[in-house]
Amino acid sequence: MDARAILAKLRLGGRLSAVEIGWFVEGLASGAVDDAQAGAFAMGVCRNPMTQDERVALTLAMRDSGEVMTWDLPGPVVDKHSTGGIGDCISLTLGPAMAALGAYIPMLSGRGLGHTGGTLDKLESIPGVSTEVDADSFRRIVRDAGCALVAASDRIAPADRRLYAIRDITSTVESIDLITASILSKKLAGGVDPLVLDVKVGSGAFMKTMQEADALAQSLVGTANGAGNPTAALITDMSQPCVPSVGNALEIMEVMVSLTEDGADTILSRLTAELGGELLRLAGMAESREQGAGQVMDVLASGAAAERFGRMVAAKGGPSDFVERWRDRLPAAPVIRAVPAPRTGIVAAMDGYALGMTVVRLGGGRAHADARIDPSVGLSDVVMLGDAVSEGDPLAVVHAKDEDAAEMAVAALVPAFSVGEAAVTPPPLLHKAVA
Prior knowledge:
This protein is an alpha/beta fold. The chain has 17 helices and 12 strands.
């Protein structure tokens, strides 16, 4: 067997066997497959989409190209993945909530990508917290706190890391087959069993239309279940941020409000409950998503989830009293400027991509891989769809490092909001469940 024969079969529209896919993936990890051949494979998959059996084989082969974690814990080991959006900090409330309910959630998370923020970057805005931990520390934190959000080591799915870099320079990132295998190979390598997927749709997401989001959700769920991992997906709305803030420390503040203010009924807490409820159902800890959602809301309101969050923060090097004194512990930007509404009316739409990229330009995200992040900058008090505003009212508040950066952000954000005269019905938080 050799790469040329496999590529020729792919070019002619043939179907690849699990053995052929496994050989090619092993070559990606070992270097036996060169960059040109890897690029040809990615382009071939784009031109000749895979069957579900091929996606399952690719996912499992990439999972098995490196370390696959195993766990021995007195409760179900579960996980959640989001396809990415703006103001999406659900992992930071869901993990502690699941831990408070008796599950264990070892989450291999990512950093900011494009206009979307990264969970690890947000968590590291807490002074002292490190998300780069060794395997022994990862296991200890999961065992003691019930949840840990950490960076994946180089030993996790190395074939995916190699192929992803090739996809980035060959314009093949958008392939649903390759996206599916990339996401799931890393998640399944974490050794989890039930998995819930938060597939975002809207202006602030990578998938802008329901057709795109549904196609990805169906591919992810079908492939994960085909690989033997109980999985469901919720397609959730991203036509506005999950919280009224976009930026690392600012989103941590929103997380703490949902974890510590009894009875807080926010988009964040409701989405946490929906996703957590589905995960509890998959794990056999609730009879339905609705019942599970109620359990999640209970531990958010009682402070039990906040206590787990505090344990995790302290175990990662953060302040031991963070939950009690979080308002004093987070960095703050020196310049704050409002974004004025250009007219009186109703907020009809917003460009989520523009909001996210404005935060990147403020320094809150990465324009290139090795860029340093300023955790204090971003946007707060972002209006919601359907809100009434008068001319001059703030559409959002910019947090910037200096006046020039603040002026740039205000100028970019005014046209990102559409203010009209007609009444607007806010979109549903949950568009569809795929199981």
